[in-house]
Amino acid sequence: MTDDGGKIDYAEVMRRLPHRYPFLLVDKAEDFVPATSLTGIKNVSHNEPFFPGHFPIDPVMPGVLIVEAMAQTGALLMSKSLDVNVADKVIMFMSIDGVRFRKPARPGDQLRMNVVVTRARGDAYKFRGETFIDGKLAAEAEFMAMAVTVEQPVA
Hints:
Elements: H1 10-16, E1 28-33, E2 37-43, H2 63-82, E3 89-101, E4 110-121, E5 124-133, E6 136-149
Antiparallel strand pairs: 1-2, 2-4, 3-6, 4-5, 5-6
């Protein structure tokens, strides 16, 4: 554990992940164990940009965005574990397997994305992710990510 109780606040999330509104899907994180595990937290608001179209009468967070929230939690775990500077390296989602959706996420829910490293080799990590809502499993997946050097755009 770290001396801060394993917590990652919103400011650190912003420093470690390149994602921004409307695609930043981790508000904060806790229970950081270097190169081992992290729990990401996403508070789902009725003001999310996807709810007007998915679905206006009975809003449900798209499952693919729950998977993305797990992937961002994995990227945050890698970034902090490897002490990656987002200006030099970005964590890229490589593959996904075994996705299962168990419970829909709705406005007012809090997603808790528990991500555990199942294998690490160099700058590549394999994860098992589970997302919980009110203590109940909402989604699960296995995925891989890799730290990739940022290429500067050609002017």
